[in-house]
Design goal:
It contains 6 helices and no strands. By secondary structure, it is mainly α. The protein has a single domain, classed as Fumarate Reductase Cytochrome B subunit (Up-down Bundle).
Length: 188
Amino acid sequence: MSARSTHDHYGSVAVALHWVSAAAILVLLPSGYLMAELEGGARTFAYRAHLALGGVVLVLTLARIAWRWWDDKPDPLPGIDGLHKLAFEANHVLLYLGLLGASVSGVALSIQSGLAESLFLGDGSIPANLWDFGPRMAHRVFTWSVAVLLLGHVGGVFLHQWTRSDTIARMGVRGVPTASHEQLRRQS
């Protein structure tokens, strides 16, 4: 696999950025809710890890946007046109905007509340109520938006995988079942 994308597959850089981002996001989303329930050192560790991994996602998202702008793009998937194509493209754009919004609001919250300074330079104390700080609501809205968009993204990928073509192979994963056009013709 070459570093740059070709007409039918994403390149190794796009694939690596995608899957590392996906893994980090899948850890961040639930950890943001679970860490508030922890106590003592486990809670402090969870908050530090969440802030650090959130910073990594911000950098990865900026790298993905830059790489997407510079890299070649594979041809559109077969069967994606009209409103389907618009939904596909809108989901990607909104995911990037949601990730940027979640990252920026998370940074703003950690700075405004003193959380970042306390966790990384101080005694590790966590404010009693992060809802007392303005960016907290924005962070919640952006993270829920990312979660919903992510479900739509994954659902769309698998729907296309099982009804149209080997979509997932374009992102470096082989062997996921797919229906051939001949199978689909026989079913209708």
